[in-house]
């Protein structure tokens, strides 16, 4: 799992782009993955928002996934995501349904543990966040 901390972004699209670029540079997704996520948002709205301050952008395996992984992008300043204030973007890419479920379970365990989630939300140190997850 990749971790990146950014002070602020101008839009939720920029946040998603940053996390997709991390995944793309490491060889987990192709360049078409980011536009596929934006298409999902246009079609379905902000369904990626999974909790207070948390969004989990993703697209289908056929939208450019090479291998499964995730990028945690923590914003020090929240950004508006279609009416939701988001500070944590957990962008996942899953190669298949089994990988998808494994990633979802890992992310759920992070989001459901208030101690872990608070450590992530209040940290601006990538290494500290990496240790927590």
UniProtKB/TrEMBL annotation:
Sorted UniProt keywords: Sugar transport, Transport
Protein name: PTS sugar transporter subunit IIA
Keyword match Transport: yes
Superkingdom of origin organism: Bacteria
């Amino acid at each position: 799992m990749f971790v990146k901390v950014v002070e602020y972004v101008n839009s939720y699209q920029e946040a998603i782009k940053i996390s997709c670029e991390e995944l793309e540079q490491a060889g987990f997704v192709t360049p078409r993955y980011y536009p596929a996520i934006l298409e999902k948002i246009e079609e379905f709205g902000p369904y990626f928002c999974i909790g207070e301050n948390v969004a989990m952008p993703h697209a289908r395996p056929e939208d450019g996934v090479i291998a499964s992984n995730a990028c945690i992008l923590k914003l020090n300043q929240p950004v508006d995501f279609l009416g939701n204030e988001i500070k944590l973007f957990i962008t996942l890419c899953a190669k298949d349904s089994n990988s998808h479920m494994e990633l979802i379970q890992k992310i759920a365990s992070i989001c459901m543990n208030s101690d872990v989630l608070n450590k992530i939300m209040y940290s601006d140190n990538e290494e500290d966040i990496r240790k927590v997850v």
